[in-house]
Amino acid sequence: MIRVSGLARRYGEVQALGGIDFSVARGEVVGFLGPNGAGKTTTLRILLGLVAPSAGRAFIDEHPVDDPRRDVRALIGYLPETSPIPGEVSVRRHLAFVARIQGLPRGRRRAAVDAALGRCGLEPVADRPVGQLSKGYRQRVGIAQAIVHEPPVLILDEPTSGLDPNQRVEIRALIRALSPDRTIIFSSHVLAEVEAVATRVIILHRGQVVADAPAAGLLAGQGLRVRVPDAQLDAALARVRAIEGVTGAHRAGEALHVDAAPAVAPAIARALEGLDLLELSPIRGDLEATFRRLTGAA
After folding, report:
1. If DSSP codes are grouped into helix, strand and coil, which group holds residue 200?
2. How high is the pLDDT of residue 220?
3. What is the pLDDT of residue 297?
4. Do 193 and 168 touch, CB atoms closer than 8 A?
5. What whole-number distance in Å separates Cα of residue 139 and Cα of residue 141?
6. Yes or no: is domain 2-218 CATH 3.30.505.50?
7. Is the pLDDT of residue 286 over 90?
8. 19-39 burial by CB neighbour count: b if 16+ within 10 A, else e?
């Protein structure tokens, strides 16, 4: 649904994007990460048709974003970090207005509004002014306006910004519920949100893609944890260090931290025969540590 090829953008002497490539399929929820100035906002603006690239192309459902024959923006639902919704208008009237400017035929608008209200849990407040709603409900209204025209692509910019922990959980659940039949890209500075929601993570740094992988894969491969009784730790350490495929091993509290891929685990188990092996498990990575390592902040 989204394809970016050789995308580059300069602002004077500043290279905001240095020729990036990625694609996103329907049903994927992609966490779009990077430190300030990495090129995230520029990439999203190009996808939205708000900024023209200096080089390269961007496609939505195989239509060039800059195709003059079609308004590709109709295929996208967008939630900005600060959603400019008039406070005096009711939720229902606001969604009806958005449905109209998105070009939905008059006969479809009421059903589209009702469907968006239902998907976003807004029925109880549908006829209340937006300005009287909590921050969590206003964020739901922002998502409802992004989906009212049933776009296949959603771009969400900091969708949980300013929410309390309970509201964050609700918005995360809503994003997951919307994902099966859509492509979703969301940017966030809250890495725990990305871990909880994203099926895939793209990390930008200095205008380049430095990571693009399934979320689970990006956090895997951080090594193996081996635990034996304390009296056997030194013997286990010596045996493990001699195994092909182990690039390093050290004591970490009451266990060993082994620098090796999960595929080396059977060889470790064989090498420790005769010792009392209590645990042999992969060490799950931490997204914050991974992010810092890839962006040079570690």
Report:
1. strand
2. 60
3. 62
4. yes
5. 5
6. no
7. no
8. bbebebeeebbbbbbbbeebb
